[in-house]
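$ ./design --mode recover --in tokens.txt
reading tokens...
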């Protein structure tokens, strides 16, 4: 019976999807935008030797640059116009959100509604240009001194003109991706920035799987290790889906009110609190902050054996204790910080009080806010531990097994979370289309 009901529901969804022209248009727009993004990752910066650049990134594949190359979909190893990807925008968003939590002027902008959000987005873009320009200047300087393992230079014609063209191209590429992500938000389906990161990660999965299987064919990896990695990846994905959909529902009651001869209210509802309220934001923020100061360090480290930059790159390599400690600390910090940004217990308690709602056994107002904050703190603690486990266990396994498969827990979590969020938006559009169809039918029947 259950399978038959699921089949009927699937057929209804397929029928609704075939008629939802607006949804199909949005999906095609998002796919077209992602194709443009992927095409741009193959356009190399002027004056760069692609073969030398690939060799440099290969030597750093176990470190920060290798992880950055995963997020950029190979754009960094090819040193394309999208080499910096969308990471400067994420770093700018982090800074603006941190400032809005301590700056009264920015905090008031958040409360102004649409107008305030437009101003904050504009400030974020300005800061993105500044961060991208600083990173581009550092990368241009580092590229001029970078050489491959054979001593071949990465830049064909170094000089001031190369630095200028590199900075302009990288800044333009990042800002184009910001604009493309906003267009996906407005005209496509899903969250644009997340989809761009998702596309970059997914684009490298076939090659990574092929490399792993090739190691198995040559005997470098045993069949049991490959099977263990496959089973582990499936288990991690199932765990991520389970936790991302988990909720703590707080019972909310509304008193009965009599207006004239009719009685209103008296029903019960639930206030859903996700176990991982912050979602995939903490790992992305933590990764971007680790990548921000070390992108240039990785390039400069390839040109000399010693130096502070090279030492820093080694200490913050994947699987190194300092990297794991900083990564875990940043994940915990951003889990609490972003949860506080997206959910305000005092504001929620005040809204419940205005509409007459209350949590059974808890007095409205301040007590309700304290109760919500207590529950949310416990959930965030569990959510932060979940993020650390998902993001760090694969790092240990990949480092210990020496497998050239660079899709750790952060990448898997981004992929699964983006797929879940996009599917929820698709279902919402399908439901809206079905309701529109029912309304049209009811109007036609009313006219008859």
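writing sequence...
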């Amino acid at each position: 019976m259950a399978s038959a009901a699921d089949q009927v529901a699937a057929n209804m969804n397929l029928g609704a999807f075939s008629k939802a022209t607006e949804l199909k248009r949005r999906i095609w727009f998002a796919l077209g935008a992602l194709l443009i993004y992927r095409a741009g990752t193959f356009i190399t910066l002027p004056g760069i030797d692609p073969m030398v650049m690939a060799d440099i990134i290969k030597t750093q594949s176990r470190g920060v640059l290798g992880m950055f190359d995963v997020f950029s979909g190979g754009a960094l190893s090819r040193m394309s116009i999208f080499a910096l990807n969308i990471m400067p925008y994420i770093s700018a968003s982090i800074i603006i959100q941190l400032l809005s939590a301590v700056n009264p002027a920015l905090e008031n902008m958040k409360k102004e509604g649409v107008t305030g959000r437009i101003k904050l987005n504009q400030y974020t873009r300005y800061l993105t240009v500044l961060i991208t320009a600083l990173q581009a200047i550092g990368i241009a300087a580092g590229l001029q001194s970078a050489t491959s393992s054979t001593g071949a230079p990465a830049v064909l014609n170094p000089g001031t003109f190369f630095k200028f063209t590199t900075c302009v191209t990288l800044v333009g590429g990042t800002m184009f991706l910001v604009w493309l992500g906003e267009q996906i938000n407005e005209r496509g389906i899903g969250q644009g920035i997340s989809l761009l990161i998702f596309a970059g990660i997914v684009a490298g999965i076939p090659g990574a799987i092929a490399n792993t299987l090739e190691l198995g064919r040559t005997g470098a990896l045993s069949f049991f290790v490959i099977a263990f990695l496959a089973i582990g990846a499936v288990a991690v994905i199932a765990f991520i889906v389970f936790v991302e959909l988990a909720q703590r529902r707080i019972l909310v009651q509304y008193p009965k009110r009599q207006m004239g001869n009719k009685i209103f209210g008296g029903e019960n509802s639930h206030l859903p609190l996700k176990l991982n309220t912050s979602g995939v934001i903490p790992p992305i923020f933590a990764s971007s902050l680790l990548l921000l100061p070390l992108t240039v360090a990785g390039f400069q480290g390839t040109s000399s054996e010693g130096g502070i930059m090279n030492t820093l790159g080694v200490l913050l390599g994947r699987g190194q204790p300092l990297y794991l400690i900083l990564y875990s600390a940043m994940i915990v910090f951003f889990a609490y910080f972003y949860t506080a940004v997206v959910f305000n217990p005092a504001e929620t308690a005040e809204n419940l009080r205005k509409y007459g709602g209350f949590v059974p056994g808890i007095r409205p107002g301040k007590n309700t806010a304290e109760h919500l904050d207590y529950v949310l703190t416990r959930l965030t603690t569990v959510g932060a531990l979940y993020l650390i486990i998902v993001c760090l266990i694969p790092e240990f396994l990949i480092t210990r097994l020496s497998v050239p498969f660079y899709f750790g827990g952060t990448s898997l979590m981004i992929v699964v979370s983006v797929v879940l969020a996009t599917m929820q938006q698709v279902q919402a559009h399908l439901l809206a289309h079905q309701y529109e169809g029912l309304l049209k039918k009811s109007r036609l029947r009313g006219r008859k």
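exit 0
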